[in-house]
Amino acid sequence: MKRIVINPQACNGCGICQLVCSACKAGQWHPAFSRIKIKQMREYNINVPVVCQHCSQPPCETFCVMNLIYQEPLEGYVLRREERCIGCRACEIACPFSAAVFDPIKEAVVSCDLCGGNPACVSNCPEGALFYMDEEQTADSKRRQTSRLKLIPSSAAGLSRRASL
Amino acid sequence: MRIMIVGNGAAGNQAAASLRKYDSQCEIVMVDRESYMAYSACALPDVLAGWIPLGKTFLQQESDYSGLNIRTCFGQEVNEINLENQYLETGEEKYYYDRLILATGSKPVIPPLPGSQLPGNFVVKSPADIEQILLHKPRKVVVVGAGNIGVETAAAMNNRGCTVYLMEMQDRIMPLLYDPKPAAIIRSMLEKEGIQISTSQRATRVIGEQQVEGLLTEEQTLTCDTVIWAAGVRQNTELAQKAGLKIGSLGGIEVDKYMQTSHRWVYACGDCVQTSQVFTGKPALSLLWSSAKSQAEAAALNCLGQAVKYEGSCSLVIEEITGVPCAAIGLNLQGLQDYEVKVIEHHDADRYYRLLTVDDRIAGFQCIGSIEGAGAIFNLIRKGTTLSEVRRMLLNPQLISSMAWYIDGAKYL
Q1: With an 8 Å Cβ cutoff, is B404 touching chain A?
Q2: d(CA A102, CA A97)
């Protein structure tokens, strides 16, 4: 049950993960093709990479009119039979994370498939903001991360972003 | 345990799949009147337009059913359900059940006007309808009803090179989804494509002797060789009615929050039921693919003895008109008549959106041009999150960075 885990405090918004993803999955060198997206909030100096969360009850699965999104039974990954997609984009709008991306070359909506177990964005992140880890480990590290943040006054939180995981 | 499912649409198939996902032992039998494999009704206008082949709309093959160990009895019409002794009868066989799931769906309405039975009158509901329309080789088409199916069908026929005339009884197109202003924007987009639209018009009769030659409305006569009726659907409740199940005020089978009908071992889901709207809590019909699927999942889990509530329906309709995505989420002003509604609106050259709020909650959202962030709004509506709660979250940089999807929704609030 490994997932991509994000530490938004460490992300500086360089966008390398987007370029790597577009190159690996679509053969293009453009963030529009990327399945991982960096959301930015300038006023708080926040950069948050967002990618498919592989939900346990995926809304995209419910909204797909072609029934092509399915949960892989063993690990619970949310995967797609892309060749069947008609590009209606219903899943794109149902996803709260906007993690489904329309690929104009394939004429299909695609989402993160974790590169089959070795996500390229994680191995290429220079800031160490992306991790690929087990669920149990995730909960543990998130707790540590939050407890560290509690010690920092909220006004200064934006400055010390480099809290290591 | 033997669970029978009547119907092979979105709801029936989702119910079967969910049952099998959580219980590998139970016996699942599906009965349906049609002998088709399951198809996606939402993809049919795309077939009409010629964007995808008809074969692509079929979702499952014979082997998919047998792979899940589901027995299929297609092409058999259920004549009678005996609730007392728990069996149902088709013309050929008698099936006993422990739990029954009704997913009988809906059928399109053709108003009983003179001439509406002539060859040349069509509906868009099943692959057979599409085949018939294509065989008819239409040149001049009148689409009656400008709901989302009417609009999609009109755009599809226009793409085929037909002359298309779209007619609507109410004063704007897609009256149940959009408010007057966005409806007017979509209308002008369609008119730019060459579709002629008239609203506040009612068809009175179809002209023609051997086949359709025209359509008479209250104001004018339209010459055409094809009439496509997209004037709404009616729930298939005859079977349930005959068996003695309670029918609701809106004409759907009445179910409680657990998708259970008035009889203990009978559940219902899909187009044929009436549930409640997630925002108002009032009874509502939701004739959407996604509602059918989530209702079916709830019904299946309740069949297996888990108490799972269906949260209520929240509509989400998206269509692409001339390459511009448009989406309508939740209710519009017409659906919120009894409430005091505040409107947040934005319009510029390449996008339009409108957010409807009641008290402290979001009730509806309509956007044209860009659907970015609409997913965040949709989930806020579905969960009933208050606006003040969202604003509180947005003020705290630590919270917001761990709930990134709020960032997308933030630009609308």
Answers
A1: yes
A2: 14
